[in-house]
Amino acid sequence: MKLKDLGEFNFINRISKSIRASSQVVKGIGDDAAVLKYTKDKHLLFTTDMIIEGKHFYKSAKAELVGKKSLSCNISDIAAMGGVPKFAVISVGFPGSLDLKYADKLYKGIRKVANSFKVDLVGGDTVNSGKIIINIALIGEVEKKNLVLRSGAKEDDAIFITGNIGGSIKFKHLNFTPRIKEARFLVNNFKINSMTDISDGLLADLGHILDESYKGAIICEKTIPVSRNASGFDSAVRDGEDFELVFTLPWPQADRLEKTWPFTTRLSRIGRIINRRKGFSIVNKSGKSKKINPTGFTHF
Amino acid sequence: MKLKDLGEFNFINRISKSIRASSQVVKGIGDDAAVLKYTKDKHLLFTTDMIIEGKHFYKSAKAELVGKKSLSCNISDIAAMGGVPKFAVISVGFPGSLDLKYADKLYKGIRKVANSFKVDLVGGDTVNSGKIIINIALIGEVEKKNLVLRSGAKEDDAIFITGNIGGSIKFKHLNFTPRIKEARFLVNNFKINSMTDISDGLLADLGHILDESYKGAIICEKTIPVSRNASGFDSAVRDGEDFELVFTLPWPQADRLEKTWPFTTRLSRIGRIINRRKGFSIVNKSGKSKKINPTGFTHF
């Protein structure tokens, strides 16, 4: 059997099952970042992302943007847990024939993001490879009271997303701002029951929250803001790499959230968490309800 | 200018110069692992290593050994700081056409090493790539009093190495035991002034200690144990990926170390730290002293 026949998510499930964790692990594989015991009031967060030329970006893309993406997608994982990013190590695979200017610009992009989010770049590894590869691992921290998992959604929670959805492949996937300040505002001022970042597509990532929380959901097409770069609603909700947040909080807090939201980043209430038995469905523009099969982007 | 014209170490120096670190970073780029502030008595350690098919291993190598190597080389970095490994995240790039059995065996190798060193595997990333790529990032910890840097070598320190040197390419680079228990014995019982693991070759890695400590050294050919897999002494001291330890401690402690060493792993006193002005030289078997140019394996 080949990996592509099994599929990425089945493969990850297969691996995860064989791995046990010590009591120092609060949450291991299966969320945006691992959660590790740290101090009396705080947890450590730990995440990693690999991007490869020809898969996550093309050689023709601006090196500085590739560098920005490589760190930003990790920071987005920390945002999704309610935390703040702290320390990064960077592994790069470069062809020996790579122009030094390209490498310098790529690191410039990483440094810009690091400076803007106060991330210390503390180490790395450099290897020779045919294609450009960048792997960043990031340590963050979060106050115990502010930690948000995918698994905490409750019935009658309101479902919100930040930003516009879809069409990220055209440009945004290389040039986005991880939603740290939005996430920190949320966890500091509201009871955020569940959250994840939108990397596999809205339906797939909301699907992860529903699976981990053992809940259902009903969402409403007309409330979901689609990017002008998307080729229609149906693809927008399945497009990957939006790097926006999808989160849930108790319905009674939703009005206050909308009234006090201080950012220019768009905020949209797109639906409600319901009983698992009622499934996952969407109400389209003509008011008809339809079951959702929440598959998104898969790597194999 | 191309990367290969500049060389790996010059490139890393170039990047490092442009990076500043906050006060939470005890030691950033330039040692085996980064050292980060943690608790009253302990520091966090943070390291990462990337290995790629065709560069660090061939597809014909046993998948389980490739998995073992991918985690063991990170653990070796933590050993070199005097610490213990704790939490790992694993990024893999696999071709979709890869046989599931290969992937399973690779993870089996990682799990075996993780279990044997009590490392929790807490997360990762899975991407599609043409060649097999494995990047592991590892968090460790070390008591502040046990931390060893490359930069602490002192004049008249004795220089020791563990194991035999050279010829690792034949087999050992895929199947070695990181020297955690040896390193922990050393830091718990002796004043280890400097230490690093031998990944670029004995001369290059001892050279790193000398540069970071601003010291010289004299080493003695007849005291350096060469592996039977090496093709002679001159190549053995430049071969990479031994994953042994080279360390220094005050000369008066050297006899006690040799007498109390409790392991079957070989221990060899190979020389002495001297004044920087006296340089780095080796006494060959006929008693002649020769200056060393400490270059080792470089990736570009």
What can you see in these coordinates?
Two copies of one chain form a homodimer. Chain A folds into two domains: about 20-145, 60s Ribosomal Protein L30, Chain: A (2-Layer Sandwich); about 150-290, PurM-like C-terminal domain (Phosphoribosyl-aminoimidazole Synthetase, Chain A, domain 2), CATH 3.90.650. Chain A contains eight helices and 13 strands. Chain A has helices spanning about 5, 10-15, 65-80, 100-115, 180-190, 200-215, 235, 255-260; strands at about 25, 35, 40-50, 85-95, 120-130, 135-145, 155-160, 195, 215-220, 245-250, 265-275, 280-285, 290. The longest helix of chain A has 18 residues, at about 65-80. The model of chain A has no long low-confidence stretch (mean pLDDT about 95). At the A-B interface, helix 1, helix 2, strand 3, strand 4 and helix 4 of A face helix 1, helix 2, strand 3, strand 4 and helix 4 of B.
Q: What is the CATH fold-level name of the largest domain in chain A? A: Phosphoribosyl-aminoimidazole Synthetase, Chain A, domain 2
Greatest interface by residues involved: A-B, 72 and 72 residues
For the biggest β-sheet of chain A, the strand order reads: 8-10-7-11-9-12-13
Mean pLDDT of chain A: 94
Large-scale geometry of chain A: globular
| Integer-rounded radius of gyration of chain A | 19 Å
Task: Describe the protein's topology.
The structure is a homodimer.
Chain A: H1 3-6, H2 8-17, E1 25-27, E2 34-37, E3 42-52, H3 63-80, E4 84-94, H4 100-116, E5 120-128, E6 133-143, E7 157-162, H5 180-189, E8 194-197, H6 202-213, E9 216-220, H7 233-236, E10 245-250, H8 254-260, E11 267-274, E12 280-283, E13 289-291
Parallel strand pairs in A: 4-5, 9-12
Antiparallel strand pairs in A: 1-2, 2-3, 3-6, 4-6, 7-10, 7-11, 8-10, 9-11, 12-13
